[in-house]
C-alpha cells in the first residue's frame, strides 16, 4: 500500500491499543512503525537492477522480523532519557504499528515475504490495490476524531470498517473466480492456472487472468450479482518461459539467472510486450485493457557487461477516472452478459 495508508493504519492500531496510556503520542509511534518496513526501498544497486524488486517487501516485511522492526522504530524515543522509563508501552506501540504493515501489503497483489526465513513464498491475497482511496479516507477520519477527542472509539470504528471493506473485497474476488470459470468454459478453454486482480479503489471491478495451454487470457469483470454482473473481453498473449528465450540469451548465465529472478517476482505471469517484444513484462499489470503493455519488465542484452536492463513505465500508468467510473457504474457499453453455466 501507499505510505500514507500504512502510516494511518499503524497509527490507528496504536491509538486504539495505547491511547489511554500514551495519550496523543500513541498515534505517532504507530505511524512510524507503520511506514518503517518500506525502508527496504533503499536496498538497490546500479550494477544489479533487479536487486530492488528482490528485496522490496522481503525480510523487513516478514512476521518474524516484527519484534526487531518494532524496536528499531522506537529508537528515536528510546535514545532520549525522558522516554526510557516508559519504554515498554513505547516499544509495544511501534511494534503493533510495524505489525500492521506486512499484513496490509499481503492483501494486495504484489507479493510479500511474510514467512521469511522459513519459506520463500511471496504471499499475495489479491484483495485490494496498492492505492485505496476509500480505505485511506476511513482511517484518516477515524484517527483525526480519535486524537482530537482523546477517544479510542473513532479509530476502532475505522479499523472495523476497514476490515469489513477488505473482507467484502475478498468475498467479491471469490465470486469473480466463478464468473471467470464460466467465461473460460464458454470459450472451451481448460484453465491451467488463474488469478484475479483488483482494480483501483473498488471491490466491484476485477482484472481476470487465466492460462490455457501457452496463452494468457485477460478480461475485465464487473461483479455485482445475478444478471447485473457483466464482463468485457480483453486480450491474449503467449506466456514466456526460459526455453523461449533466444539462443544468445540462453547462453548467458547472467541472463538466465535474472530471467528466473524476474519470473519468481512475477509469480510466473511473464510475457513479451505487444508493442515492443524486446521487453519481457509482468503480465499481472498492464497499461492498457485491450492489449498487454507492461508497467514494468526487463530487457536483456546477452553478452554485454550489463546484460539486464530494468524497464519501468510507472510514470505512464494513468488511471482514466471517467472510464473507470463508467465500468464501475455499469454504463460502459463494451460490457456484456456473462455466459450461462
Write structural notes for this entry.
This protein has 341 residues and is an alpha+beta fold. Helices cover 43% and strands 16% of the residues. Strand 2 (202-212) and strand 3 form a beta hairpin. Helix 1 (3-22) runs antiparallel to helix 5 and helix 1 packs parallel to helix 6 (133-149). It is globular, with a radius of gyration of 22 Å.
Detail the topology: elements first, then pairings.
Layout: H1 3-22, H2 25-35, H3 51-55, H4 66-78, H5 87-106, H6 133-149, H7 153-187, E1 193-199, E2 202-212, E3 215-222, E4 230-238, H8 247-250, H9 253-265, E5 270-272, E6 280-282, E7 296-300, E8 308-312, H10 321-329, E9 336-337
Antiparallel strand pairs: 1-2, 2-3, 3-4, 4-9, 5-6, 6-7, 7-8
Number of folding domains? 2
Helicity, in percent?
40-55%
Largest sheet: 5 strands, antiparallel
| Percentage of β-strand residues | 15-25%
Which regions contain 5 or more consecutive residues with pLDDT less than 50?
Answer: none
Number of distinct beta strands = 9
Secondary structure tally, helices: 10
Structural class: alpha+beta
Order of helices and strands: HHHHHHHEEEEHHEEEEHE
Distance between the terminal alpha carbons, to the nearest Å? 36 Å
Mean pLDDT across residues: 95
- Shape estimate: globular
Rg from C-alpha positions? 22 Å
List the strand order in the largest sheet. Answer: 1-2-3-4-9
Amino acid at each position: 500500500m501507499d505510505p500514507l495508508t500504512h502510516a494511518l493504519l499503524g497509527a490507528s492500531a496504536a491509538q486504539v491499543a495505547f491511547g489511554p496510556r500514551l495519550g496523543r503520542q500513541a498515534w505517532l509511534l504507530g505511524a512510524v512503525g507503520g511506514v518503517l518496513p518500506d525502508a527496504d526501498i533503499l536496498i538497490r544497486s546500479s550494477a544489479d537492477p533487479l536487486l530492488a524488486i528482490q528485496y522490496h517487501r522481503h525480510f523487513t516485511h516478514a512476521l518474524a522480523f516484527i519484534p526487531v522492526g518494532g524496536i528499531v522504530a522506537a529508537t528515536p524515543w528510546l535514545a532520549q532519557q525522558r522516554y526510557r522509563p516508559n519504554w515498554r508501552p513505547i516499544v509495544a506501540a511501534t511494534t503493533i504499528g510495524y505489525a500492521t504493515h506486512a499484513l496490509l501489503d499481503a492483501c494486495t497483489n504484489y507479493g510479500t515475504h511474510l514467512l521469511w526465513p522459513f519459506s520463500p513464498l511471496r504471499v499475495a491475497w489479491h484483495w485490494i490495490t496498492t492505492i485505496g482511496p476509500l480505505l485511506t479516507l476511513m482511517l484518516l477520519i477515524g484517527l483525526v476524531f480519535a486524537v482530537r477527542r482523546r477517544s479510542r472509539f473513532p479509530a476502532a470504528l475505522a479499523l472495523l470498517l476497514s476490515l469489513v471493506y477488505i473482507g467484502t473485497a475478498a468475498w467479491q474476488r471469490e465470486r469473480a473466480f466463478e464468473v471467470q470459470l464460466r467465461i473460460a468454459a464458454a470459450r472451451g478453454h481448460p484453465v491451467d492456472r488463474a488469478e484475479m486482480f483488483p482494480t483501483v479503489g473498488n471491490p466491484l471491478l476485477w482484472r481476470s487472468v487465466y492460462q490455457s495451454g501457452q496463452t494468457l487470457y485477460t478480461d475485465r469483470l464487473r461483479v455485482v450479482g445475478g444478471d447485473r454482473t457483466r464482463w468485457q473481453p480483453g486480450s491474449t498473449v503467449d506466456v514466456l518461459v526460459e526455453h523461449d528465450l533466444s539462443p544468445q540469451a540462453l547462453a548467458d548465465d547472467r541472463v538466465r539467472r535474472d530471467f528466473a529472478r524476474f519470473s519468481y517476482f512475477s509469480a510466473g505471469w511473464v510475457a513479451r510486450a505487444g508493442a515492443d517484444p524486446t521487453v519481457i513484462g509482468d503480465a499481472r499489470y498492464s497499461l492498457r485493457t485491450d492489449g498487454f503493455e507492461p508497467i514494468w519488465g526487463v530487457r536483456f542484452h546477452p553478452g554485454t557487461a550489463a546484460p539486464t536492463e530494468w524497464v519501468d513505465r510507472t510514470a505512464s500508468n494513468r488511471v482514466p477516472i471517467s472510464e473507470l467510473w463508467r465500468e464501475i457504474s455499469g454504463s460502459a457499453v463494451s460490457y456484456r452478459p456473462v455466459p450461462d453455466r
